[in-house]
Amino acid sequence: MNIFVAKLDFKTTDETLRTLFEQFGTVESATIVCSRDSGKSRGYAFVEMLDEKEATNAVKMLDGTMLDGREIVVQKNKQKPGLSNNPHQTRR
Question: How far is 12 from 58, CA to CA, in rounded Å?
Answer without folding.
Answer: 18
